[in-house]
Design brief:
Shape: elongated
CATH topology: Tetracycline Repressor, domain 2
Number of domains: 1
Largest sheet: none
CATH superfamily: Tetracycline Repressor, domain 2
Strand content: under 5%
Number of strands: 0
CATH class: Mainly Alpha
Helix content: over 70%
Order of helices and strands: HHHHHHHHHH
CATH architecture: Orthogonal Bundle
Structural class: mainly alpha
Length: 195
């Protein structure tokens, strides 16, 4: 799976063949077919593994938070910072449409639950959920791409989160403040608040 992630991040999923993955992993093609039905199965396994890790991290980081805006800010910034921790994963998500779709599907339930809480409590004012999710996904992908291309500066994670919070209806000053709350510590894995 590490070889597949690396090859697909470099070449894109469409240009990658199972032979490319087998060669990069030092395996025979038949060995891959013992574990996966085809390239789509490899993509699903890679994304599921990475998203499960991200979901666990987000659950840990937001467990003590009650404010839906703070939960959004922390989850959004931590997802962006995954690119720094694992650039191959970032390139994979940015370049492989199936990966983006699976990430959106896996994280969508968590996001929907938090947005719904924010709307019910009046913390968020959202004219259209569907439009927000599309715009937010675009904002997240643009932030990931900018980080991968080395086009970001210190504080851009917070600025991206602030934009998302403004889309959710927070006033400018409140969105800025909430986007800059320190990220909680990650238990034994260290603190994610160091860029």
């Amino acid at each position: 799976m590490d070889a597949a992630r690396s090859v697909m991040a470099d070449k894109g999923a469409d240009a990658t063949t199972l032979r490319d993955i087998a060669d990069a992993a030092g395996l025979g093609l038949g060995t891959l077919y013992n574990h996966f039905d085809g390239k789509d199965g490899v993509v699903e396994a890679i994304v599921d593994d990475a998203v499960e890790s991200l979901r666990h991290t987000l659950d840990e980081l937001t467990a003590s938070l009650a404010d839906p805006a703070e939960i959004f800010s922390v989850a959004f910034r931590q997802t962006l910072r995954m690119v720094e921790a694992d650039p191959i994963w970032g390139w994979f998500v940015v370049r492989v449409p199936a990966a983006r779709e699976r990430v959106a599907a896996h994280l969508g339930e968590r996001s929907t639950r938090n947005i719904s809480r924010g709307l019910r409590s009046g913390r968020f004012q959202l004219p259209g959920r569907r439009s927000f999710y599309i715009a937010c996904e675009g904002l997240l992908l643009a932030g990931m791409q900018a980080k991968l291309d080395d086009r970001t500066r210190r504080g851009d994670d917070e600025r991206f989160a602030e934009l998302g919070l403004r889309m959710l209806g927070l006033e400018h000053d409140e969105a800025r403040r909430t986007s800059q709350i320190p990220l909680p510590a990650l238990g034994s894995r260290g603190t994610p608040d160091t860029p």
